[in-house]
Design goal:
The protein is mainly alpha-helical. The chain is about 45% helix and about 5% strand. It has helices at about 5-10, 20-35, 45-55, 75-90, 105, 120-125, 165-180, 185, 200-210, 215-230, 240-245, 250-255, 260-275; strands at about 1-5, 60, 65-70, 110-115, 135-140, 280.
Length: about 280
């Protein structure tokens, strides 16, 4: 979804962006008017999802079990490159990652960013200690010229069942899988993340009102729902896209390379990793 510091926006009279391009423009404006404020993190493994996946840039475009489409020159990657270049050169992004040891110091100065549902309690409240009634959220952003918002995915739970399980053990395993995926006793009462199972999402979202942390609870609840339906296609491959990102993008920028240099280096590393685990890589 799109997180923002509502208290900061209200105090300074800023209008919440609804497009990726509007986000870039406002980020640079805020960085100019408030040099201590930032609008995003680049240094963690999820940054590739926040920006490239949300642009529908083909990094994890699975064509078959043995073939993948990777092309950082694709127009959708170019628009992500242009957005990140604008924001980075405008002083609106940090090369830190959200999990860095000193990220909290930057986090309290983050005024807006695309980010996962779990950022709310895990990062803002529990890790960065941002005071209550400041942070809020809106639906994921839309690219200009498109009618639907797009978002990346950052984490989430995935359960698998081995095909070798049979008989009574299989029955028990499927009962367990159904329980952890759909039962409110687990997904509502104990889970810290929005359930993927739609029928119990409202019960989990009701807990946000009891928690009373966010500045506009109804808006955050609706944003959570909107975000769940806006995730751009992304396949989990045998190569590690996030590791390729962290090992190339921030190091290139810190060494005074451009954003285009960083993304080009990332693309080359991604292709190399895909090759190394046996994929045939196509740019078409």
């Amino acid at each position: 979804m799109f997180w923002y510091n509502k208290a900061f926006f209200d105090e300074n009279g800023y209008t919440l962006p609804t497009t990726w391009e509007g986000y870039g423009d406002l980020a640079v404006q805020i960085a100019d008017e408030h040099p201590d404020k930032i609008s995003g993190f680049l240094g963690d493994a999820y940054a590739v999802n926040r920006y490239l996946q949300a642009a529908d840039c083909p990094t994890n475009d699975r064509l078959s079990e043995s073939e993948v489409h990777i092309n950082l020159d694709d127009p959708n990657c170019v628009r992500a490159n242009e957005l990140l270049t604008q924001m980075y050169e405008g002083g609106a992004l940090t090369t830190q990652g959200i999990f860095d040891g000193d990220a909290a110091a930057a986090g309290v100065n983050m005024v807006m960013s695309p980010g996962a549902v779990w950022w709310g309690n895990y990062l803002f409240r529990d890790t960065w200690k941002i005071p209550a009634e400041q942070m809020s959220a809106s639906a994921p952003l839309t690219w200009e010229g498109e009618s639907s918002p797009t978002a990346g995915n950052e984490g989430g739970g995935l359960w698998g069942v081995s095909s070798h399980i049979t008989g009574k053990q299989l029955e028990n395993t499927l009962t367990f899988a159904t329980f952890v995926a759909t039962d409110p006793a687990w997904q509502v009462e104990l889970s810290t993340g929005l359930p993927g199972y739609g029928p119990i999402q409202d019960a989990w979202l009701d807990k946000l009102a009891d928690d009373a942390y966010f500045a506009d609870v109804p808006a955050v609840q609706q944003a959570f729902k909107d975000a769940a339906a806006a995730v751009a296609p992304y396949s989990y491959m045998l190569y590690d896209t996030g590791a390729a990102w962290t090992e190339t993008v921030s190091p290139t920028l810190i060494a005074d390379g451009s954003m285009s240099d960083a993304l080009s280096t990332f693309g080359t590393e991604l292709v190399n990793r895909a090759d190394s685990v046996g994929y045939t890589v196509t740019a078409e």
